[in-house]
Amino acid sequence: SHDNICRYIAREGSSVVVSVGYRLAPEHKYPAAYEDCLNATVHFMRNAEHYGVDPARISVCGDSAGGNLAAAVSQTLAGRPDLPRLRAQVLIYPGLQALDLDLPSYQQNRGVPLLLRERAAFFALHYLRGEASHKQDVLKGSHVPPEMRQKYKKWVSPD
C-alpha cells in the first residue's frame, strides 16, 4: 500500500527506503508488529554498509500505526551502544496515546475521514487485544484507572 510513496521519498530525497511489511492485527496482536519493525531495523542498522548505506544517516518513519511503531523503535534503540544512533524519526499522524480519546484534537477531528474517532479506538483495540468489545469504554475514558489518569495528566491534558 505504501510502495508509491516510498519510491517517491527515495527518488526525491536521494535516499534508500526500506519498508517493513509487519504482521497485522487482529490476526497478530501486540507485540508482533513492533517486534517485526524492531528486528528489521536492527538487522538493517547492523548491515547498512553491506547495502551501501552510511549507518550515521539512518532514520525511521511511519504514518498512523506505523508512526506509533517508528516512535517505539526509536525509543528502544535510543540507548543501544551496539548500534549507530538513528539520525531522525519522522512521525506522520502517529497514534501515540490511547489514555484519553477526548482531547481537543480527537474532538475537532472526530468526524474527519478516513480515521474517525470510533475507528481509531476500534483499530487500537484490535492491535492490542485482537478484538474491540471494549470500544465504548475506551471512548468514554473508563479504560484508564483514575490514578493513572492523574499521573499522566501533566502530559496528556487539554491544557
UniProtKB/TrEMBL annotation:
Domain Alpha/beta hydrolase fold-3: 1-134
Keyword Hydrolase: yes
Keywords: Hydrolase
GO molecular function, one term: hydrolase activity
Lineage top rank: taxon: Eukaryota
Pfam entry (one): Abhydrolase_3
Name by which UniProt lists this protein: ADCL3 protein
Organism: Odontophorus gujanensis (marbled wood quail)
